[in-house]
Design brief:
4% strand; mainly alpha; 11 helices; 2 strands
């Protein structure tokens, strides 16, 4: 979701789409790496993060810790929750460790984000509005668009 002219994107999750979009931004402004560009614009959809975790692990005892991570505002708190989850549930190690990249942490916590605080507070941390506009979006830009493709249209 693009929140007005602020260019803050609430996206479904971490994947190659974010990498490609960041790469495109770096090609326009090479002063920043693709990861640094993403720290200025991304907020991950909390609902989709929960779904991704549930898809990977099913109903899991670590789910409450995931909820606390999504409510945290500090990097140290998030990393402590990651470590706690990994210690208690070793099967989650790869999943939580893969979220330690700076650009991912920036999309989870304002403390690590480079998004201005006002924009962070005003931007939705879910994709509910976008989800409800799928039909109109599909008519306007077509189906199965990449993040970069949709933004460039």
């Amino acid at each position: 979701m693009v929140s007005g002219k602020t260019m803050v994107f609430t996206i479904v999750g971490w994947n190659a789409e974010a990498n490609r979009f960041g790469g495109y931004l770096a090609s326009i402004d090479p002063r920043l790496t693709w990861r640094e560009h993403l720290q200025y614009i991304l907020i991950f959809c909390r609902t989709h993060i929960k779904r991704a975790f549930k898809k990977k692990f099913g109903p899991h005892a670590a789910t409450p810790i995931l909820a606390m991570i999504l409510q945290s505002n500090s990097k140290s708190e998030i990393l402590a929750y990651f470590d706690e989850a990994i210690e208690k549930w070793p099967e989650t190690k790869a999943w939580f460790n893969s979220k330690r990249a700076d650009w991912i942490l920036a999309s989870l916590s304002h403390e690590t984000s480079k998004i201005p605080i006002t924009w962070w507070q005003l931007a939705p941390h879910h994709t509910g509005l976008c989800e409800s506009s799928h039909f109109v979006d599909n008519e306007a830009i077509g189906r199965k668009q990449t993040l970069l493709g949709a933004v460039l249209k």
